[in-house]
Design brief:
Blueprint (H helix, E strand, L loop, with lengths): L1 E4 L2 E5 L5 H11 L6 H9 L8 E7 L2 E15 L2 E13 L8 H15 L4 E4 L6 H6 L3 E12 L2 H8 L3 H8 L5 H9 L6 E6 L5 H10 L4 E3 L3 H8 L7 E7 L2 E13 L2 E11 L4 H17 L4 E6 L4 H8 L3 E12 L8 H4 L16
Helix pairs in contact: 10-11
Amino acid sequence: MVITHHGCDIRRYREGDEFGIVELINQELNPEYELNVWKWKYKENPINAFPNTWIAEDKDKIVGHFAINPVMMKWKNIEILGSQAMGVATHNNYQRKGIFKTLAYKVTDEAGKKGIPITYVFPNPNSYPGFIKIGWIHAFSFIVMAKVLNVKEVSSKFNNNIVIRKILELGLKGHKFLFEEKSSPSPRDIAIFEVNFFDESFDILWKNVSKYYDYLIKRDHKYLFWRYSHQLEHFKIYALKNNNNLVGYTTLKCKIFHDIKVGYIYDLFCNPNEDTTIEYLISKAIEHFIEKGMDLVQICVLKDHPYYNICKRLGFLNRSQKPFVLHINVPTYSKNLEEFEDPKRWFLSLGDLYHD
């Protein structure tokens, strides 16, 4: 099916379009985005359901793109196929012509016909107004928290930023706790170790932890392998065992952002009521980032989640907020909107965002 909008052809993805899609994303979103990353995200997804992808094309050039990638989700007591909007981009010369709206409508309409009840997105500041304008719902927001490890380095580059300045004022908070924690021996029944592969023990962990939430992406060993073992991603994964039972893990990544070396805690998954497990995993993450020479540690949490207060105790401070926005594709699910807007029912992490 092809429709015409402002001289552009609006149509579904065809084999070979990925070259033009990557070129568009390079120009509008991420100059370092690569074709093999696109293949990993879309073609190698373990759900084995190729994404619902639409493009805008003008004279054989892709000028607009909107895709949703399928994810298996726990939906109260059942599993459903959900989806995340990704790679949303419009060429600069074709903006303000309704291409974004037309592509979004086609994608969500088709998703609804396939029985995918919701599509969610973590929009950047530029795209957020567009999603809200076309009727997507701002359900709630992540809290982006940061802990300074290298006060001198961060202050030299962000001393004019009010939020960073606040972090710097309390930048040493938690350092004393950290080093006291490092010098204290771990209980003999606790073991933290690096993970190089995901086995069926992570499926058991998934069953044990997922019961505390109504809505979240299914984190079984197949998903975790796909999400965190891609050769270009360079994640470091640590797991924690208690009495030889896997009780939690964290996934970490080092990046350079505006000349600041930032350590990101992408995922932290364990029993939300086990404060000791949470503290050990976060402390291990901080220790790892100190060893790697990072200037800052960042984590995204929901404010009402137990992680939030523990991060506060460990010296993290609120830095910003990241909106969680969704679209209901199947009208009958609108009756559950109040539940969807309750962050206490969700588990989300930075790892749930598939950055372009």
